């Protein structure tokens, strides 16, 4: 059960082309967001569609695969863990972001 403590699995579509960053250390970083859709029926019995956006980062070989094969609109399945980081913005206000650190990626859906 330890492997389930911080595990995320999502299937969704990329909202934009991934941002690829080549670090001075030689490592590669890919940043992108995916949309997941959910639906439910409200009290009136009407179907309500809800879209959630998830920030995703990937490192190394996974980032290289994303750089070469993944673009806006592609449907992907990802697996990883949640992380939260913080920073101070220009006005000195502490900001937070929660991201999925992708350890595995599967390209699904139709080729574009």
Protein architecture, described:
A 5-stranded mixed beta barrel has the order 1-3-4-6-5. The protein starts with 7 loop residues before the first strand and ends with a strand. With 112 residues, the chain is mainly beta. The protein is built from 1 helix and 6 strands; from the N terminus they run E-E-E-E-H-E-E. 9% of the residues lie in helices and 60% in strands.
Give the integer mean of the pLDDT values.
Answer: 92
CATH fold field value: OB fold (Dihydrolipoamide Acetyltransferase, E2P)
How many structural units, i.e. domains? 1
CATH architecture: Beta Barrel
Residue share in helix: under 10%
Q: Give the structural class.
A: mainly beta
Distance between the termini: 38 Å
Number of helices: 1
Number of strands: 6
- What are the secondary-structure elements, in order, as H or E? EEEEHEE
What is the CATH superfamily label? Nucleic acid-binding proteins
Main beta-sheet annotation: 5 strands, mixed, barrel
Q: What is the top-level CATH class?
A: Mainly Beta
Which key terms come to mind for this protein?
mainly beta, 112 residues, single chain, OB fold (Dihydrolipoamide Acetyltransferase, E2P)
List the helices and strands and how they pair.
Blueprint: E1 8-14, E2 19-22, E3 28-41, E4 47-59, H1 60-69, E5 75-88, E6 94-108
């Amino acid at each position: 059960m330890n492997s389930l403590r911080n595990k995320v699995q999502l299937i969704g579509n990329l909202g934009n082309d991934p941002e690829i960053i080549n670090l001075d250390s030689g490592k590669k970083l890919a940043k992108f967001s995916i949309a997941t859709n959910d639906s439910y029926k409200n009290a009136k019995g009407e179907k309500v569609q809800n879209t959630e956006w998830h920030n995703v980062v990937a490192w190394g070989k996974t980032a290289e695969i994303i750089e070469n094969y993944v673009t806006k609109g592609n449907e992907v399945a990802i697996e990883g863990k949640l992380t939260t980081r913080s920073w101070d913005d220009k006005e000195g206000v502490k900001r937070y972001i929660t991201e999925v650190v992708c350890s595995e990626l599967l390209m699904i859906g139709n080729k574009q």
